[in-house]
Amino acid sequence: MFGRAYVVMDRLPGVTLNELAYRRPEIIEDNRVTISYQLGMHAGFAFVFGAKDGYQTNYIFDSVSKILTRIDKESFLEVPDEPRNTLSDDDRYTQEIAACELSNLKYIPAFRDSETRPKIIYAFRQGFIDKYADIKYKKDDLIGLVMESRGTWLKLKPESDPGEYEGETRKLIEKVSEMIDLEPEAVFDRLMKAKIEVDAGRYRRR
Amino acid sequence: MASPVMSFEEFVEKLRFEVPEKIGKANEKVQSELPGLLEVRSTNRQRSLLINPKEARSHLKDLMGRRERTDRFLDTVSAVRDEKVEITEVVRGHREDNRDFILKGRNPETGVNVNDMRVLLGIPERHGEDIRNEATQAAFYKTLNLHIYREKADLNAENDDIRLRIDVPGERRNAL
């Protein structure tokens, strides 16, 4: 039914994280805490809602407004079948999120320095925990949005078996709900360990 | 060395309130003019097929289709800016897979330039799901006070001919 879809959007002021690291590292250095904090907020969102493409090229930082914006969000609601498993060693989902979101920290020069690294991680963690708390607080609204989204998707691409689609929607809502209910501190710790697993070559691509 | 005005922890604490507030204000600005996040169009186009012979009909159909796609694209662009927009220049975006372009444009009636826009093309194999995902997340971002931006998606562009109007230097093909 669909061909080549497209989206037209504002061109945001600012540049991508990797471009900034290459051309204007001093801007990252000057804003290292706010960038880390906001990366943490986006990582929390990515983990709960299965947004897996949070690469450095998909973050734009505007040094005037100090806002970090996530663009090209082409992956969504790709949550795991067993949310509890995300807290286990070598879980692929957690590794996938960690491989994207935590890798972005390497573009912050202070993260590469062993003395300042803990501060960067602290700010990232705080952003992550804060956004997770916000997600928990707005859980009902967000679950409502998942249902609305599924409804819109069905209108866009009618399924031959609406009953089956409805069943899939129910399962998805259960999974998102379980993701929201996880303890953010435990998730953050697991993400850090998952990144170490990825760096050690224990990432099992699907 | 100057004494610090606040500790690192105090600074992060300050961020916890200031960053969401700043994003909230930016979102309000976008939201106040947002023309709608997701465009859903019917795929059932009705075209008049009154012309013969076969080749002429086919040619006309092709022209009509091309015009329709171009108009739809310009409608989408105009909707993002909430005014009539004529595209004056297209340059490549930052993506290495060449799926994004920066559009420069102006209002043809007033001659005033409009803010630059960016277009992201979906991956054909994903049949619109990637663009659908992008557009869908805006409501979540707004609810969670993460930064949103004005955008409008067209999920029913039928083929690659969107590039007909995106006249990228060196890639110009049959521009209308």
Structure write-up:
Helix content of chain A is 56%, strand content 7%. Chain A has 206 residues and is mainly alpha-helical. Chain A has a single domain, classed as Phosphatidylinositol 3-/4-kinase, catalytic domain (Phosphatidylinositol 3-kinase Catalytic Subunit, Chain A, Domain 5). In chain A, strands 2-3-4 form a three-stranded antiparallel β-sheet. In chain A, strand 3 and strand 4 (67-70) form a beta hairpin. Chain A starts with 5 loop residues before the first strand and ends in a 7-residue tail after the last helix. Helices cover 39% and strands 16% of the residues of chain B. Chain B contains three helices and five strands. The longest helix of chain B is centred in the middle third of the chain and has 28 residues, at 54-81. Chain B starts with 7 loop residues before the first helix and ends in a 22-residue tail after the last strand. Chains A and B meet through strand 1, strand 2, helix 3, strand 4 and helix 5 of A and helix 1, helix 2, strand 3, strand 4 and helix 3 of B.
Briefly say what this structure is.
The complex is a heterodimer of chains A (206) and B (176). Chain A is mainly alpha-helical.
Secondary structure elements and their pairing?
The complex is a heterodimer of chains A (206) and B (176).
Chain A: E1 6-10, E2 15-16, H1 17-23, H2 25-30, H3 32-49, E3 59-62, E4 67-70, H4 92-101, H5 117-137, H6 139-156, H7 162-181, H8 184-199
Helix pairs in contact in A: 3-4, 3-5, 4-8, 6-7
Chain B: H1 8-33, E1 38-39, H2 54-81, E2 86-92, E3 100-106, E4 113-121, H3 129-143, E5 151-154
Parallel strand pairs in B: 1-5
Antiparallel strand pairs in B: 2-3, 3-4
